[in-house]
Amino acid sequence: MRQMPTFVALVLLFTRGFLLWLVIPYGFVAWLVYYWWAKSASLGQCLGWFDINLIALLQLVVLKNFIPTPSVYWVPSKQMSTVNHRIRGYDLL
């Protein structure tokens, strides 16, 4: 996270950690029902896509006044099968 105040980085970190507990079950169900066959995306790619867009939401909308240059931007759903980002266990803390 470049050029971000420490307090804002901590708020982003803890908010994302909390919201991942909501996003992961939703993302799993969404992948099971739709994305695995419609977008040909693996579970890791689907959850990574949800996580990247969660970070983008937090940086570009919720904390936009505190983050001068966001490090992540929106990823459209048609690019889900090319996402390399993965959620790790310590992201949930």
Protein architecture, described:
By secondary structure, the protein is mainly alpha-helical. It has one domain (6-80). The protein contains 2 helices and no strands. It has helices spanning 6-38, 43-62. The model has no long low-confidence stretch (mean pLDDT 89).
The tally of domains stands at 1
Q: What is the 3D form?
A: globular
Total strands: the figure is 0
State the assembly state of the protein chains.
single chain
Helix coverage percent of residues? 55-70%
Quick check: average pLDDT?
89
Structural category is mainly alpha
Parts with pLDDT < 50 across at least 5 consecutive residues: none
Q: Helix segment count?
A: 2
Helix-strand topology string: HH
Strand coverage percent = under 5%
How is the biggest beta sheet arranged? none
Distance between the termini: 18 Å
Rg, Å, rounded: 14 Å
Concise summary:
The protein is mainly alpha-helical. It has two helices and no strands.
Chain-wise SSE layout:
Elements (H helix, E strand, L loop, with lengths): L5 H33 L4 H20 L31
Helix pairs in contact: 1-2
Q: Which key features would you list for this structure?
A:
single chain; mainly alpha; 2 helices; 57% helix; globular
